[in-house]
Specification:
The chain is mainly beta. It has one domain: Hexapeptide repeat proteins (UDP N-Acetylglucosamine Acyltransferase, domain 1, 3 Solenoid). 12% of the residues lie in helices and 39% in strands. This is Gamma carbonic anhydrase family protein. Pfam families: Hexapep.
């Protein structure tokens, strides 16, 4: 379901794909070739949500904001199943593992991975190419360019998957 909130209606690029059971509410912008999968909720009634190009938000994920924190998701990002993103910034070419939670004003640097079930606490800022894991999350290693290239390729596969649903 795609709903207006006050004067805001989601802006979805025509090449993006939204699953019929996803709920998008309010001040949302979704870029070219991105996808939002089954059971997701993106509620932008307090602040804005921006999702870049070639980004996939997988099944059952929830995205929200706060008064002082927008949610910005870059290009070529994979947000795994059942992820919670709340008022955070995910830079380009990242993978957020299944059931991870990232809280207000946290920043995940470009080309990083957040491990499954990790908890990124409010205000935490991670540098580019970080492998981030745990609760609370911390950097466990730096990623190589080869690792980042694999993240970009993974996001590209989801562009192909969403095209099969058209």
């Amino acid at each position: 379901m795609i709903l207006k909130f006050k004067e805001f209606y989601p802006k979805i690029d025509p090449s993006a794909w939204i699953a019929p059971s996803a709920d998008l509410i309010g001040n949302i912008e979704i870029g070219e070739d991105s996808s939002v999968w089954f059971g997701c909720v993106i509620r932008s009634d307090i602040n804005e949500v921006k999702i870049g190009k070639n980004t996939n938000i997988q099944d059952l994920s929830c995205i929200h904001t706060d008064t002082n924190s927008k949610t910005i998701i870059g290009n070529n990002v994979t947000v795994g199943h059942k992820v919670m993103l709340h008022g955070c910034i995910i830079e380009d070419n990242c993978l957020i593992g299944m059931s991870a939670t990232i809280l207000d004003n946290a920043v995940i640097g470009e080309g990083s991975i957040v491990g499954a079930n990790s908890l990124v606490t409010a205000g935490k800022v991670f540098p580019p190419r970080s492998m981030i894991m745990g609760s609370p999350a911390k950097v466990v290693k730096q990623l190589s360019q080869e690792d980042v290239d694999k993240l970009i390729a993974h996001a590209a596969r989801y562009v192909e998957y969403k095209n099969e649903y058209r």
